[in-house]
Amino acid sequence: MLLRLLPVLAVILPLISSCIIAVWGKRFFSQIAIITAFLNALLVISLYLSGRGSPAAVNLFEVNEFLSVEFRVDPLGLYFGLLVSILWVFTAFYASGYMSHGERRQRFFVFFTLCLGITLGIAFAGNLFTFYLFYELLTLGTYPLVIHKESTESLAAGKKYLIYSFSGAALVLMAIITTFAISGSLNFAPGGIFGRIYPGIELLFMAFFIGFGVKAAVVPLHSWLPSAMVAPTPVSALLHAVAVVKSGIFAIIRITYYIFGNEILVKTGINKIALTAASLTILLGSLIALTQKNLKKRLAYSTVSQLSYILLGIFLFSRSGFTGGLMHVVNHAVLKITLFFCAGSILVMTGKSEVSQLKGIGKDMPITMLCFTIASVGLTGIPPTNGFVSKWYLSIGSLETGRVLYVVILLISALLTACYLFPVSVNAFFSQKKDNKKFNEPPGTMLIPIVILTVTGLALGIFPSITKGLIDSIVSIFY
């Protein structure tokens, strides 16, 4: 019985903690956020150690005879839940240092903690109705984080974020209603719930794909993401590595494999449109990143590109491709959160945010820039980093399905990634500083998470079996 309640506790605990921070946490808000993230990680890890999830559902309450709020832990949800809960611990520690000064810190940690519970609600949602409920709550929960500074720029970015998110959500809602009308069910079932090809099912899938594609930053639905870079760096890390964009990717996986089923999508050929969209996004995201002078915006467009590596793996419909896509969910998250933490540390310690301002900074901040370099190597896909492993599987998956073009696209994107990331490190270590100011490494609360995450990226590359066991349990359901 306790095992069945663990996913519910993982969702509710952050909600309670956020209320505590709001009412009584004027002095200890960051400490409460850290403790909550740590306890939540223990809860989700306990679920994993107990047998990789219990298939039994927990029905919290019924809206009516057709709709209910239900939680269920399956291997895919557990995989996403582990990623969210573990990386949230690092972000909480980092945020405690990054947000040690400034205004509206208590409000920041209220919504920071709240969003942890909401994101785990997405991970453990037992049906499409519950999923949509938490998916929309995530938009509302992250909005105050995006507009944290309350400047003209941040308010404009927040407005854009809401317009894009709610527009996508409206399309998804119509698709959900249509799905229920056709199938009579909103439950997640491996292989899909339709059973056969209905007229117009291609349009229905595209409604889901476009609607969820907003948070997944598929071109041309991506422009909210770089605009949201005005938020504090811990928020950027959550947006780009853990919560929002990965929720969009997770949603597309759920819809593809648990609502429609890969067989229906292959027979209708609709996956070819998704593959084309993913390929264009990979290339355009990399090309635009190459032109960005602001470091965080360069990383933002990098995220746009890298997310579609995962989409490529999802829609190749091969065992190796799906394995590579799922691997990149974690590998990209670890690498990108490291890069954002490094960028935030540079901003806090030096006040510099433009790439051209970082010449010689490696001499003052060698640990930070070494970690940035290693993460850049990983994102490019060079062994022995974790980025290489996931891209290797994606390439094998492309060849298995006879799509050599996608291997070429992956290689071109890797080259472009090196072109927009490596110059940052080269200039940091081998160029002369423009001024004589001396800068220091960030405090331990910020530097330690960076170092641990960098080592984690290397460990996941050298020992890919760390994640592959759970990934294989997901992939084996379908292939």
UniProtKB/TrEMBL annotation:
GO terms for cellular component: plasma membrane. The chain crosses the membrane at residues 6-25, 32-51, 76-96, 108-135, 161-182, 203-225, 237-261, 273-292, 298-317, 329-350, 365-383, 404-426, 446-466. Residues 125-417 form the NADH:quinone oxidoreductase/Mrp antiporter transmembrane domain. It holds the Pfam family Proton_antipo_M. Keywords: Cell membrane, Membrane, Oxidoreductase, Transmembrane, Transmembrane helix. InterPro entries: ComplexI-like_HydComp (IPR052175), ND/Mrp_TM (IPR001750), Proton_antipo_N (IPR001516). One of its GO terms (molecular function) is oxidoreductase activity. It is found in: Cell membrane; Membrane. PROSITE patterns: PROKAR_LIPOPROTEIN. It is a multi-pass membrane protein. It comes from the Bacteria. Residues 67-109 form the NADH-Ubiquinone oxidoreductase (complex I) chain 5 N-terminal domain. Belongs to the CPA3 antiporters (TC 2.A.63) subunit A family. This is Na(+)/H(+) antiporter subunit A. It comes from Koleobacter methoxysyntrophicus. The gene is mrpA.
